[in-house]
């Protein structure tokens, strides 16, 4: 997927062993505080992503920008993971997390281009009808990004690890938001 002036985004399956050191640098960076892995070791990160790789309801992909690792995307079934029992899932619901790699040379519009690429990737599956997210209520930066691609907050929910803002984005809302 190409985004004007930003470059090309592609996805590949995450390799828990081969990508653990890279991911460790990302998830322990101060800008990734909401990822809740600040004190994780490389081994912790590898174990966490091996568990995801073995889980039929949760998948992790490495996002590439012009062929170089630049972000992490997780796709999960909210009826079985993360949100199980916290809302009434509908057929075609897909849960999503994303994390952009820290950089010393930020590019204006890059994170918005990443979330747009992630959403396009999720909606490329015709079975996906709605994307569900549950970011920390304090993460105002991601709330703004979510709104920019069509997410609408529904309500705050209590998860074991955080108070989260349950939000939804339908295919139609996404298409309208990115067309604007």
Which features characterize this protein?
8-stranded mixed β-sheet, 180 residues
Give the SSE map.
Layout: E1 2-3, E2 7-13, H1 20-27, H2 42-53, E3 58-65, E4 68-76, E5 93-100, H3 110-123, E6 130-133, H4 140-148, E7 152-158, E8 163-170, H5 171-179
Parallel strand pairs: 5-6
Antiparallel strand pairs: 1-2, 2-3, 3-4, 4-5, 6-8, 7-8
Short summary:
This protein is α+β, with helices and mostly antiparallel strands and 180 residues long. The protein has helices at 20-27, 42-53, 110-123, 140-148, 171-179; strands at 2-3, 7-13, 58-65, 68-76, 93-100, 130-133, 152-158, 163-170.
Describe this structure in words.
There is one protein chain. 29% of the residues lie in helices and 29% in strands. The protein has five helices and eight strands; from the N terminus they run ββααβββαβαββα. Strands 1-2-3-4-5-6-8-7 form an eight-stranded mixed beta sheet, sandwiched between helices. Helix 3 (110-123) links the parallel strand 5 and strand 6 (130-133). The protein is globular and about 35 Å long.
Globally, the shape reads: globular
Strand order of the largest sheet: 1-2-3-4-5-6-8-7
- Poorly predicted tracts of residues: none
Beta-strand share of residues: 25-35%
End-to-end Cα distance, whole Å, is 18 Å
User: What is the number of E strands?
Assistant: 8
Helix count equals 5
The helical percent reads: 25-40%
What is the structural class? Answer: alpha+beta
Radius of gyration: 15 Å
Mean pLDDT score, rounded? Answer: 92
Instruction: Please describe the biggest sheet, giving its number of strands, its sense, and whether it closes into a barrel.
Output: 8 strands, mixed
Give the ordered list of helices and strands: EEHHEEEHEHEEH
